[in-house]
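Contributing new records

If you add data, match the layout below exactly. Sequence lines come first and carry their own label; structure lines follow with theirs. Keep one chain per record. Anything else will be rejected by the validation script.
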Amino acid sequence: MDLRPIGVFDSGVGGLTVLRRLVEILPGEDYIYFGDTKRVPYGDRSKEEIKRFAGQIINFMKEKNAKAVVIACNTTCATIDKKEYDAVLFDVLQAGAKSAALFTKNKKIGVIATKRTIESLSYDKNIKAINEGIEVYSAACPDFVPLIERGLANSDEAYESAYEYLSGFKYKNIDTLVLGCTHYPIMSETIKKIVGENIKLIDPAIKLSFDAKDYLKKYDLLNPQAKGNIQFFVSGDKNNFIKAAEVLMGEKFTSISTIDIEKY
């Protein structure tokens, strides 16, 4: 038994899709969520910046006494070396790669993510490490995160952007598409309109949440309470964040604090 919270962080509201899955699968845990709303999006940031951001956020989570930290940001996962950090870390990118490799039947997988994640080839490497016979087709979608952060996931503008980025997949015969940024499940309805209902959309948060549960059970770290609490922290504007949190989590939240993440 371990009553300490689980830390979850992302560049903004996207990691709420991971938090929602974690709460579904581990409802008794307390959570600390950090959204880096001051510095979102991460997709065009340099490797040095992202490593510095990750260090600051993990230090914050350690100050909050988190027993484990979920990196709910594919760009961060694609950039840092987890072994450099003194914390129990769960990686949404590896979970997504494993899910896609297990699901595909025709061994043709599409991946959409931020520019930095795509350029890192992290999904390609992780998927091919599981099955080198799988073909991976990737597309960066840099406009998606700003659209989602502005609450425009289902707008005409989002549809036009999705069509530009995703229409090429219909010539690749993929049967699986990895939503390689935690913001993207918020835009899944728009994405389905472009790629079609027959393509399986992989939300990496599902496998990640079960992996976290297995780990906590193995090491007797589960919180035995029936329903946990969530504390939210952001680095900048919290208005859009509050709206997204209440829509995605299905309840009202009052505990949302703004912090100076740079001091960590």
